[in-house]
Design brief:
Length: about 110
């Protein structure tokens, strides 16, 4: 198949525009400092299930009942550590709360220790 120079140039311009659009979308996703606080971390289902020692189904029940705030990016579920901390405080036993605080300390906890 033969493509003349004019068709090739048009095709390359369209491709270049599409790549620039994708690059802009990626830049907005990478700049999470503007979306989240500096000390804010994200946990996925695997992280949180391991941390709380519960099943994925249990996490799903917490989400469905509205007890555990979450959001999804590309069909993957994420939780903010601040939301998980509040959930653990109000719904879990004290030992689980201590374990979570040990693995995900806040600056406020560091100031209290001093």
């Amino acid at each position: 198949m033969y493509i003349d120079n004019e068709d090739f140039e048009i095709w390359m311009q369209k491709l270049s525009k599409k790549l620039n659009d994708i690059g802009q979308d990626l830049k907005s996703l990478i700049n999470t400092k503007e979306v989240f606080d500096e000390d804010e971390k994200l946990l996925d289902n695997q992280d949180l299930a391991f941390l709380l020692k519960v099943s994925y189904r249990t996490l799903q029940r917490y989400r469905t009942s509205g007890k555990l705030p979450y959001f999804m990016i590309a069909h993957k579920t994420y939780y903010r550590t601040s939301d998980v901390r509040e959930f653990v405080r109000s719904h879990m036993d004290f030992q689980t709360y201590q374990l979570f605080e040990k693995k995900h300390p806040t600056d406020n906890n560091d100031e209290k220790d001093e």
